Amino acid sequence: MSKTAPNPLANGYIVVLTDDPAIDKRAMGMRDLDAMDPVEREKIEPTEEQLAADPLALNAVYDKLGAAAMQRYIETRDLKHLAFKPGAKASRFKITVLRSTFLTSRIDGDNSLSHSESAALALRGGMHEALHADGSTYRPDKVEVDSTKQPLADEDWPEKVRDVWGQNAVYQLGVAVQILSRLPVSARPLLTSLAG
Questions:
Q1: What does 23-68 look like in DSSP terms, one character per residue?
Q2: Which residues of 21-34 are buried (b: 16+ CB within 10 A; e: fewer)?
Q3: Alpha-carbon distance 12 to 82, whole Å?
Q4: Which of 12, 121, 129, 170 is such that its CA lies 20 to 30 A from the CA of 162?
Q5: How far is the C-alpha of 131 from the C-alpha of 194, rounded, in Å?
């Protein structure tokens, strides 16, 4: 019997960055147009005359629908709203829900924190594992439990994330942690895994 390597991103909410080059926004729009109710589709799909005048008119519809699908993903972090380019792999980030006491006292309760500082703190509390598109796994050097019983990565963790994925990733992932932490369980996406 062969052993399989453990999935480094099992048992968490898996998210990707909205600007990941593996995401195919046009395919998202095409998928959503195909799934649309025929009456609604007729309202937004270009007519043959419009397409004759502007052969790219349908691309504008795909782009608009793709942007709407991306907004749904941002609001829910549910991967079902995304589409990926064939053969492309996105970097994936395992997010866990923050403890309510941590969210209330350390993030919401500290009015001195900027949005970026809140995001970095949320990242330290709720994102402790990442799988780069190249297959490399990243984890903080140290995770300790704070006074609210929240596992909290070391202060250098946001810097390491920034060095690999950029400062926007620190902000975006921290906000994603906060969004998922504020949703009721019934509104959260299914626990998923995208390793491989």
A1: B-HHHHHHHHHHHS-HHHHHHHSPPHHHHHH-TTHHHHHHHHHHHH
A2: ebbbbebbbbbbbe
A3: 18
A4: 12
A5: 9
149 neighbors 99 (Cβ within 8 angstroms)? yes
pLDDT digits (tens, 9 = 90+) for 21-77: 999 999 999 999 999 999 999 999 999 999 999 989 999 999 999 999 999 988 888
Mean pLDDT for the stretch of residues 170-196? 77
| Residue 123 CB coordination number (10 Å) | 28
Helix 157-165, helix 167-182: angle, nearest 10: 120
Bridge partners, 145 (sequence order)? 151
Residues listed for the chain? 196
- Amino acid of residue 186: S
Model pLDDT, residue 190: 62
Q: How far is CA 101 from CA 5, 62, 106, 146, in A?
A: 35, 42, 8, 11
- Count CB neighbours of 168 within 10 A: 12
CA atoms of 193 and 151, how far apart (whole Å): 21
pTM of the predicted protein model: 0.82
- What the block records as the tokens of 167 is 């400062």
Does residue 142 sit in helix, strand or coil? coil
